[in-house]
Amino acid sequence: MCGRYTLRRVNLIRAALSAMPMLPFEEFSQRPRFNVAPSQQVPIVRWEESAAKIDLARWGLIPPWAKDASAGYKLINARSETVGQTPAFRGAFGSRRCLVPADGFYEWQSVGGKRQPIFVHRRDDGVFCFAGLWERWKPAEADRAVDSVTILTTRPNRLLEPIHDRMPVILRQDDYRRWLDPATPRDVLKALLGPCPEGELEAYPVSPMVNNPKNDDPQCVEPNQVK
Q1: Are 116 and 226 in contact (CB under 8 A)?
Q2: How confident is the model at residue 21 (pLDDT cuts 50, 70, 90)?
C-alpha cells in the first residue's frame, strides 16, 4: 500500500508535466510536504478541455453512494489488478483517472518485531506521478461537493519486494497523457499499471517520527540507522 508520501518541491509540478498541454493555473502556495497523510488535501492532475488541469482533492476516495466522508479512510489505495471490477473504483477507472504528483513515498518494513519506515524516491530525486482515480461526492445536506482521490498500487519490484508486498504505481512520463486521456482503451490502461524499474529508485530507513502525521518537516526524510 501507499499510506504516506512527500511533495517537497510543489513548484516543480509544472516542469514534470511539460510534455502535456496545460490549462492556465496559479502556482500552488502550499508549503513543502514531507509527510502527506490520508484525508489531507493534495494536488492532482486531471484532463479537461483537451488539456491537463491541476486541482486539489482529499486523499481517500469517497464513493458517490457513501453516507459520510469517513468511507474515504478505507479507500486511500486501489489494487490495480481489480480496479476495473471493484464497485467503488469501476466508474472512476473508466472516466475519472488522474495523476498524483509526488517526489517520494514511505513503506513500512518489519524489523525485529518493529515497523521500520523506509523512504523511497527516485535516484535523481525528481518529481514523478502516481496513477490515481478521482471521484466527486456530495453530502446530503451540503452545497459543495467534495473531490477525493485514491492511489493505485501494484506488485513490488525487486527493490521493494523485501520491504512490502505492494507498491504504488509510478507512471512513466511518456504515459501521463495516455493515462489521462478518456479515449485510451482499457487494455492499454491496464498495461501501464505494473511496477516501475527498481533501478530508478532508492530506498533507505528513516525516523519513526513519520508515523505521526503531525510531523511534517525535513527530518522525516533524513537517513536513520536501524538499531
Answers
A1: yes
A2: confident
